[in-house]
Amino acid sequence: MSLRQSTLGFIGLGRMGQHMAANLFAARPNDAYVVCDASPDAAAAFARRFSAEHPAASIHVAQSPAELAARSSTIISMLPSTPHVEQVYLSPGGIHDLLATLSAADAQRTLIIDSTTLDVQASRRVSQRIQTTGALFVDAPVSGGVTGAKAGTLSFLVGGSSAAFTASSPVLEAMGRRIIHCGEAGAGLAAKICNNLVLGVQQVVVAEAMLLGQRVGLDPRVLASVINSSTGACWASSENNPVKGALLNKTTPADRDYEGGFATALMSKDMGLAQRLAEETQTPIPLGEAAQSVYKEMAESDAESSRLDFSVVYKYLAR
Ligand code: NAD
Fold it and tell me: Residue limits of the 6-phosphogluconate dehydrogenase NADP-binding domain (predicted)?
């Protein structure tokens, strides 16, 4: 069995995790690797692909997050949302319980990086419990999507102590380009959720403007170029314009019938997280609430749109 100190563990090999793990492992060729996923097929398929590309690498598929934590001192997780993170770290027989059985020295040598986008308070609870064992923990949600995960150009928004941020930076640099320390535990998530609140609202209003403009006779390419060079400019229009063919020299999800990109279901989840934070802090977010109700109505009226890029909101409004 490989040394725990020189073994990297990755939990959650979905759309994002499989690329992040591949980049991280390739950047640390002298280490050993352990992977784990609730879908054993996903973990086994990743291990097969990685071994084919790196025949000398030592990679093991763990049967549980606890087995993974027993074998590796650096652990990264990329899970769907709050219940999955709570289950992996805090459920009986999960990672917290395993860390509590290690020697103090081994527990203190453990670094945990959770890159899931989840509820801020839930992440803080996980962070606190994990830190009682002596391990370091950061929340490090990402911006950049599947394209950024593949290219290793993600932005990581990190929450945790200075010591945990310093320890996690070299690991995150293997998977991303910008590593930003946002503050104490939960701060990375808070920043991520606020950013996606802006994005979620902007994508709806860009869809509204593109639809309105065409209905009064504007060519969508002319309208997009006016917005993109004027005060309405934003990513939702200049990179993710919801109208097919509106951007010259750029291919958007709209050009691919909204395939790929950031799923409406994930945007809706993130807007829900923003609403929850707003309720907890008694912060008014009327535009966020309005945009979230549009995404919700859309998903309820057409299940297919949940998996498509959230700019499909344009098609929904047009109908
Ligand atoms: P995904 O659903 O494709 O992958 C999640 C993986 O976690 C799956 O393979 C699933 O089997 C596994 N999993 C679920 N529960 C588990 C458990 N208890 N133990 C072990 N494995 C478990 O999701 P994704 O698109 O990779 O997104 C992951 C996170 O990244 C989400 O929080 C999402 O909001 C965030 N995110 C995604 C994107 C994107 O474009 N997809 C962009 C930015 C942030």
Answer: 8-183
Quick one: how far is CA 74 from the chain centroid? Answer: 19
Ligand 1 and 272: CB distance under 6 A: no
Annotate 113-160 with DSSP letters as a single string: EE-----HHHHHHHHHHHHTTT-EEEE--EESHHHHHHHT-EEEEEES
For the cut 80, the answer to whether the pLDDT of residue 201 exceeds it is: yes
pLDDT digits (tens, 9 = 90+) for 289-300: 999 999 999 988
Residue 2 has pLDDT above 80, yes or no: no
- 310 C-beta closer than 6 A to ligand 1: no
**80 Cα–ligand 1 center, Å:** 4
> In the 8-state DSSP scheme, what is residue 28?
-
Assess whether the C-beta atom of 78 lies below 6 angstroms from ligand 1.
Answer: yes
CATH T-level assignment (fold) for domain 4-184: Rossmann fold (3.40.50)
Asked if 192 is an active-site residue, the reply is: yes
- Please state which CATH number belongs to domain 191-318: 1.10.1040.10
Q: At 112, which helix (H) or strand (E)? A: strand 111-114
pLDDT score recorded for residue 1: 57
